[in-house]
Amino acid sequence: MGAFWAQADRALRAGGTVALWTQASLYCHPAHPSAPLIQAHLFDLERSVLAPYSLPALELSRNYYDALQLPWSSRPPIASFPASLFVRKTWDRDGVLSDGQDFFGGSEEISVDDLERQLGTASMVTRWRAAHPELVGTEKDCVKECGGRIREVVGEGKFRVGGGTALLLFRKRV
């Protein structure tokens, strides 16, 4: 990140802002009566089954950029982005709704089939499938197994999902 902050310092005018945004994980909307069980299955997939297939950049995003190297802690520090002009906003961290109503970015009502299609495009799933080609397309596929457990809970019904969001604003000193 040190090179990024040095380049941002050169490219951005005084008073300008670098904005970094991420949406982390997939959470079942807590209004669903079986939300804790559905979420346990999603967490098992993400944090246990797929964890060995994660990459450091994904972990940074999933953890709301908490461990991101900030410009004032770079070596050398980038003094034009002081901590006093930094703003961090997070919404719905760990699936706990900030406003008590819905996810900051909204939620989507999906079926288990929709969930399986969406999860099938995730980079960790792609890497898991590359490591287990004999299981792809079978009931032992990691996404199929997770979907099967959730289907036992919701049947053919739908449930709402959303994500946690972080926004980091770095204003350049005037």
Structural class: alpha+beta
| Shape by Cα distribution | elongated
Mean pLDDT: 96
N to C succession of SSEs: HEHHEEHHHE
| Poorly predicted runs of 5 or more residues | none
The end-to-end span amounts to 22 Å
Using the CA coordinates, give the radius of gyration: 19 Å
Q: Please count the helical segments.
A: 6
Describe the main β-sheet briefly.
Answer: 4 strands, antiparallel
**Strand tally, please?**
4
Estimated share of beta-strand residues: 15-25%
Measured as a percent range, the helix fraction is: 25-40%
Task: Explain how this protein is built.
The chain has six helices and four strands, in the order H-E-H-H-E-E-H-H-H-E. The chain has helices spanning 2-11, 35-49, 56-62, 112-119, 123-131, 142-154; strands spanning 17-28, 86-91, 108-111, 158-171. 36% of the residues lie in helices and 21% in strands. The chain is elongated, with a radius of gyration of 19 Å. The protein is an alpha+beta fold. The mean pLDDT is 96. The two termini are 22 Å apart. Helix 2 (35-49) packs antiparallel against helix 6 (142-154) and helix 4 (112-119) packs antiparallel against helix 6 (142-154). Strands 1, 2, 3 and 4 form a four-stranded antiparallel sheet that branches.
